[in-house]
Amino acid sequence: MSIEERFFAKVKITQTCHLWTGWLDKNGCGQIHTRGGHVRAPRMAWMIHNGEIPDGMLVCHTCDNPTCVNPEHLFLGTPKTNMEDRDNKSRQCQGGDHHKSKLTDEQVIRLKELRSYYMLKELAPQFGISVAQVSSICNGRSRKASFQRN
Hints:
It is a single chain. By secondary structure, this protein is α+β, with helices and mostly antiparallel strands. The chain contains six helices and six strands; from the N terminus they run αββββαββαααα. It has helices at residues 3-8, 41-50, 79-88, 105-114, 120-127, 131-138; strands at 11-13, 18-20, 31-34, 37-40, 58-61, 74-77. It has a two-stranded antiparallel sheet. The protein has a two-stranded antiparallel sheet with strand order 3-4. Strands 5-6 form a two-stranded antiparallel sheet. Strand 3 (31-34) and strand 4 (37-40) form a beta hairpin. Helix 5 packs across helix 6 (131-138). Residues 93-99 and 144-150 have low confidence and may be disordered.
Protein backbone atom coordinates (compact mmCIF):
# COMPACT_ATOMS: atom_id res chain seq x y z
CA MET A 1 0.00 0.00 0.00
CA SER A 2 1.21 3.51 -0.75
CA ILE A 3 1.60 6.07 2.03
CA GLU A 4 -1.44 7.91 0.66
CA GLU A 5 -3.57 4.75 0.78
CA ARG A 6 -2.40 3.97 4.32
CA PHE A 7 -3.08 7.58 5.33
CA PHE A 8 -6.62 7.80 3.95
CA ALA A 9 -7.51 4.40 5.46
CA LYS A 10 -7.18 6.11 8.87
CA VAL A 11 -9.30 9.20 8.08
CA LYS A 12 -12.99 9.57 8.97
CA ILE A 13 -14.60 12.43 7.05
CA THR A 14 -17.27 14.40 8.93
CA GLN A 15 -19.22 17.49 7.84
CA THR A 16 -16.45 19.73 9.15
CA CYS A 17 -13.22 17.98 10.09
CA HIS A 18 -11.45 14.98 8.60
CA LEU A 19 -10.60 13.02 11.74
CA TRP A 20 -7.48 10.91 12.14
CA THR A 21 -8.49 7.52 13.59
CA GLY A 22 -4.98 6.05 13.82
CA TRP A 23 -2.36 6.34 16.53
CA LEU A 24 -2.36 9.57 18.59
CA ASP A 25 0.58 11.02 20.48
CA LYS A 26 0.35 12.23 24.10
CA ASN A 27 -0.97 15.61 22.85
CA GLY A 28 -3.79 13.99 20.88
CA CYS A 29 -2.21 14.65 17.49
CA GLY A 30 -2.31 11.89 14.90
CA GLN A 31 0.88 10.08 13.89
CA ILE A 32 1.67 7.89 10.90
CA HIS A 33 4.74 5.68 10.54
CA THR A 34 6.84 6.16 7.42
CA ARG A 35 10.18 4.74 6.34
CA GLY A 36 11.80 7.83 7.86
CA GLY A 37 10.02 7.50 11.22
CA HIS A 38 6.81 8.93 12.62
CA VAL A 39 5.20 11.97 11.00
CA ARG A 40 2.36 13.97 12.45
CA ALA A 41 -0.83 13.29 10.52
CA PRO A 42 -1.56 16.99 9.77
CA ARG A 43 1.95 17.34 8.27
CA MET A 44 1.36 14.27 6.12
CA ALA A 45 -2.02 15.67 5.02
CA TRP A 46 -0.34 18.93 4.04
CA MET A 47 2.37 17.11 2.08
CA ILE A 48 -0.15 14.88 0.28
CA HIS A 49 -2.28 17.85 -0.77
CA ASN A 50 0.26 20.67 -1.11
CA GLY A 51 3.76 19.25 -1.35
CA GLU A 52 6.82 19.76 0.80
CA ILE A 53 6.84 21.90 3.94
CA PRO A 54 9.61 24.51 4.04
CA ASP A 55 12.19 24.16 6.83
CA GLY A 56 11.13 25.80 10.06
CA MET A 57 7.44 25.85 9.19
CA LEU A 58 4.67 24.19 11.19
CA VAL A 59 1.32 22.87 10.03
CA CYS A 60 -1.32 24.70 12.07
CA HIS A 61 -5.09 24.21 12.42
CA THR A 62 -7.79 26.82 11.87
CA CYS A 63 -10.23 24.45 13.62
CA ASP A 64 -7.93 23.84 16.62
CA ASN A 65 -8.67 20.11 16.48
CA PRO A 66 -5.37 18.20 16.72
CA THR A 67 -6.93 15.09 15.13
CA CYS A 68 -8.12 17.03 12.06
CA VAL A 69 -6.34 16.43 8.76
CA ASN A 70 -8.77 18.35 6.54
CA PRO A 71 -6.49 20.27 4.15
CA GLU A 72 -8.93 23.20 4.21
CA HIS A 73 -8.35 23.52 7.96
CA LEU A 74 -4.55 23.51 7.72
CA PHE A 75 -2.14 26.38 7.16
CA LEU A 76 1.60 26.86 7.40
CA GLY A 77 3.05 29.06 10.08
CA THR A 78 6.20 29.73 12.02
CA PRO A 79 6.44 28.79 15.69
CA LYS A 80 5.76 32.48 16.43
CA THR A 81 2.59 32.65 14.32
CA ASN A 82 1.40 29.38 15.87
CA MET A 83 1.86 30.80 19.39
CA GLU A 84 0.13 34.04 18.37
CA ASP A 85 -2.79 31.99 16.99
CA ARG A 86 -2.92 30.02 20.27
CA ASP A 87 -2.90 33.21 22.36
CA ASN A 88 -5.49 34.97 20.17
CA LYS A 89 -7.83 32.01 20.64
CA SER A 90 -7.10 31.73 24.40
CA ARG A 91 -5.99 28.09 24.13
CA GLN A 92 -3.11 28.53 26.60
CA CYS A 93 -3.66 27.33 30.16
CA GLN A 94 -2.70 29.98 32.68
CA GLY A 95 -2.36 30.34 36.41
CA GLY A 96 -3.84 27.57 38.54
CA ASP A 97 -5.21 25.82 35.44
CA HIS A 98 -1.71 25.08 34.15
CA HIS A 99 -0.68 21.45 34.76
CA LYS A 100 2.65 22.49 36.31
CA SER A 101 1.16 25.06 38.67
CA LYS A 102 1.91 24.38 42.33
CA LEU A 103 -0.55 26.96 43.65
CA THR A 104 -4.20 27.63 42.95
CA ASP A 105 -5.24 31.13 41.93
CA GLU A 106 -6.72 31.63 45.41
CA GLN A 107 -3.40 30.66 47.05
CA VAL A 108 -1.54 33.19 44.89
CA ILE A 109 -3.96 35.94 45.93
CA ARG A 110 -3.53 34.97 49.59
CA LEU A 111 0.27 34.84 49.22
CA LYS A 112 0.31 38.38 47.83
CA GLU A 113 -1.91 39.58 50.67
CA LEU A 114 0.33 37.99 53.31
CA ARG A 115 3.51 39.41 51.75
CA SER A 116 2.99 42.68 53.63
CA TYR A 117 3.08 40.88 56.99
CA TYR A 118 5.63 38.09 56.59
CA MET A 119 9.13 37.59 55.27
CA LEU A 120 9.53 35.53 52.07
CA LYS A 121 11.35 32.78 53.96
CA GLU A 122 8.34 32.47 56.30
CA LEU A 123 5.82 32.28 53.44
CA ALA A 124 7.65 29.72 51.33
CA PRO A 125 7.14 26.70 53.63
CA GLN A 126 3.51 27.68 54.30
CA PHE A 127 2.78 27.39 50.56
CA GLY A 128 5.20 24.54 49.82
CA ILE A 129 7.29 26.55 47.35
CA SER A 130 10.77 28.04 47.37
CA VAL A 131 11.68 31.55 48.54
CA ALA A 132 12.62 32.33 44.91
CA GLN A 133 9.14 31.31 43.74
CA VAL A 134 7.50 33.46 46.43
CA SER A 135 9.65 36.40 45.33
CA SER A 136 8.84 35.82 41.67
CA ILE A 137 5.09 35.74 42.34
CA CYS A 138 5.09 38.74 44.71
CA ASN A 139 7.21 40.84 42.34
CA GLY A 140 5.04 40.06 39.31
CA ARG A 141 7.58 37.98 37.38
CA SER A 142 5.26 34.95 37.32
CA ARG A 143 1.51 34.46 37.37
CA LYS A 144 1.08 37.95 35.84
CA ALA A 145 -1.86 37.35 33.53
CA SER A 146 -4.30 36.06 36.11
CA PHE A 147 -3.70 38.67 38.78
CA GLN A 148 -3.52 42.14 37.37
CA ARG A 149 -5.43 44.47 39.67
CA ASN A 150 -7.43 47.41 38.40
